[in-house]
Design goal:
This protein is an alpha/beta fold. It has helices at 9-17, 29-38, 46-52, 67-77, 94-105, 122-125, 135-140, 142-148, 164-192, 200-207, 216-227, 243-254, 259-271, 277-290, and strands spanning 2-5, 22-25, 41-42, 58-61, 85-88, 110-117, 128-133, 156-160. Helices cover 51% and strands 12% of the residues. The chain has an eight-stranded mixed sheet, with helices on both faces. It is built from 14 helices and eight strands. Helix 10 (200-207) packs antiparallel against helix 11 (216-227).
Length: 302
């Protein structure tokens, strides 16, 4: 039996398919309704969700990191009982996780941090789960992880003490930044060689089989380019959700070089700038010392 606070519908369906009893709550009523339609029991509040669960409870959070997670963990700390387990499947900063776990310890509530990867494809492909916390608590809830993972013997595991699950997921996402940037740069280079008129989706299709650069990200790139060969419907604006920054900060704190991840994060920052000031400074300096021509701004004067 597990209560799912703010959990995605695909995770609910996968757990239900594994024979687990599920109670769902989300601030959005339509999300709760979707869970009920899939076969879960709905709850109108966190308190109602907790009341519907039989102790010892397992409550799994899928909430944005930061204040949202902090608020809900604080609320649940006052509702849950000794030996209940709180699982944080969101992308929380591992330092926050360690602090929250210590706070819950004082109330006799156990906590597992579950780094979760899989996104919208989780229902079909399964989720990759990196679990930190008390090993005995992990073993007691292992059937949940086996159900959510790609298979009962792969794609999940206990990685270490509290905070380690979110730390491993943080580095996982940092690596993801680097991989995505490398693919993006390579595809841009291929597209720029106009004289060859390369079909990028075809090239990717070749790479997907037998190549050392094959990956699920490459599979997704092929799908995106088949749907929109020029990616004309997509803006060159890339957000970051925090994990890349934390990974770079950690590399600095530990003195471990991570230049690819750091530069991929900087590339995301650059993608959001329409007229980057730094680029204009470079152009102005080149003009000042060398008299090189600068291109006039196309911005209208006010």
């Amino acid at each position: 039996m597990v209560g799912l606070g703010r959990m995605g519908g695909s995770m609910v369906q996968r757990l239900l398919g594994g024979g687990h009893r599920v109670v769902v709550y989300d601030r959005r009523e339509d999300a709760v309704a979707a869970g009920v339609q899939a076969g879960a029991e709905g709850a109108g509040s966190l308190g109602e969700m907790v009341d519907k669960l039989t102790p010892p409870r397992a409550v799994w959070l899928m909430v944005p990191p930061g204040n949202a997670t902090e608020e809900i963990v604080t609320e649940l700390a006052a509702m849950l009982s000794r030996d209940d387990v709180l699982l944080d499947g969101g992308n929380s900063n591992y330092k926050d996780t360690v602090r929250r776990a210590e706070m819950l310890d004082g109330r006799g509530i156990r906590m597992l941090d579950v780094g979760t990867s899989g996104g919208v494809w989780g229902l079909r492909e399964g989720y990759s789960l990196m679990v930190g916390g008390d090993r005995e608590v992990f073993l007691g809830l292992e059937p949940l992880f086996k159900t959510l993972a790609p298979g009962p013997d792969r794609g999940y595991g206990y990685v270490g003490i509290r905070g380690s699950g979110h730390f491993v997921k943080m580095v996982h996402n940092g690596i993801e930044y680097g991989l995505m940037e490398a693919y993006a740069e390579g595809f841009e280079l291929l597209a720029a060689k106009e004289e060859f008129s390369l079909d990028l989706a075809q090239v990717i299709s070749i790479w997907r089989h037998g190549s050392v650069v094959r990956s699920w990200l490459l599979d997704l790139a092929e799908q995106a380019l088949k749907e929109d060969p020029g990616l004309d419907a997509v803006q060159s604006y890339v957000e970051d959700s925090g994990e890349g920054r934390w990974t770079v900060n950690e590399s600095i704190d530990l003195g471990v070089p991570a230049p690819v991840i750091a530069l991929s994060l900087q590339a995301r920052f650059r993608s959001r700038q329409v007229r980057p000031f730094g680029g204009r400074v470079l152009a102005a300096l080149r003009n000042q010392f060398g008299g090189h021509r600068v291109r006039a701004s196309d911005c209208e004067e006010s």
